Amino acid sequence: MKKTVLxxxxxLGVTGAFAQDLTSKxxxxxxxxxxxxxxxxxxxPIFQFVGNAFSGATTxxxxxxxxxxxxxxxIIGKKFIDxxxxxxxxxxxxxxxxxxxxxxxxxxVTAAVYPAAPAMVEDKMAMKNTNxxxxxxxxxxxxxxxxxxxxxxxxxxxxxxxxxxxxYGNALSATAGHQIGVSGNTNxxxxxxxxxxxxxxxxxxxxxxxxxxxxxxxxxxxxxxFIFPKIAVGAEYGWGLGFQSSGKGKSSTESLGTGAxxxxxxxxxxxxxxxSKFGIDTDLNQNTIFGFHGSNTGTTSLRVTxxx
Length: 308
Prior knowledge:
The chain contains 2 helices and 13 strands, in the order αβαββββββββββββ. With 308 residues, the protein is mainly beta. Strands 1-2-3-4-5-8-9-13 form an 8-stranded antiparallel β-barrel.
């Protein structure tokens, strides 16, 4: 009888230990529940910080940064239907507009006499970029302890484009001092100085990339360990296929050349060819397939996921 009671007590104690392992000392559940939301981010900076703190290294141990889930700056979120099933969302919506200005000497003017400042004009550059990526997926989970396995699939689409425009303070003409590259008619934008198809010095006025559109399907499998209530560290691996197509781009340059009427300023438009790619591969080579999902997800980096 005593042995029976002891065995029952031991069994209940072990069961209680496992049950207690899934809640904190305050009674908080360790694992995700129905209607929970979650967001994932790269955990590499956290482990680097902790590792440096205990390594005894003399290098400065900077505070860990909060990184995106991959190199393409994609946000990954989840919505749990129940404790074993979740919908996933991958989102990147980016619009960038930036301008740059440079003061250059005004062309074809009388040189300033000390201490007067030289006459100046302004060159301008305006650049716009668009990067949009949207993905949806579903995730199924397994496991009854802090260690949870999961698997599922994602469907993704993305598009991107860019455009740059240059405006010059000095007009281009055959007048002395107004040719490209002479003193007073240079600029600080670097790559916009070129040569046209006739061998004349040229400067870029506009540059537009073709619109890039792509889509992909990816299966994944991963594992997480809940180190704190609703906070898990894990890794994910995947395999998928993707297709991406880029349209033709266009750039315009202005130059001074010899036309039918002698020296004249002309604008030449150049068309760049489009491209496309298709691939089936693992996450390790994902960047060659998926244009927005990136190559770091599920490869060499760990992730930390917060549930709330």
